[in-house]
Amino acid sequence: MNKIIITALLLGTGLVTAGCEKNYSVAEFKKDKKLMQEWGKKCEKMGPSLQSSSRNCQNLLKAASEFVLDGLNKELGKEID
């Protein structure tokens, strides 16, 4: 019985901790490349279903795609000039 209670408490604590994690905005990810790398590793470890439900993984993907688009726009602007 004690094992069941301890297991339930550990699982509950893990869920509460994960639920209280700070959500970073797209702008925060774009400003801090170290943060992007850190969350990139975390999101890679998550399965696809957790990635789609994680606000940080969603914002990370948006920030990364904005970086790519910004880079392409700069390159295209150089070619036009």
TrEMBL record:
<protein>
    <recommendedName>
        <fullName>EexN family lipoprotein</fullName>
    </recommendedName>
</protein>
<dbReference type="InterPro" id="IPR047937">
    <property type="entry name" value="Eex_IncN-like"/>
</dbReference>
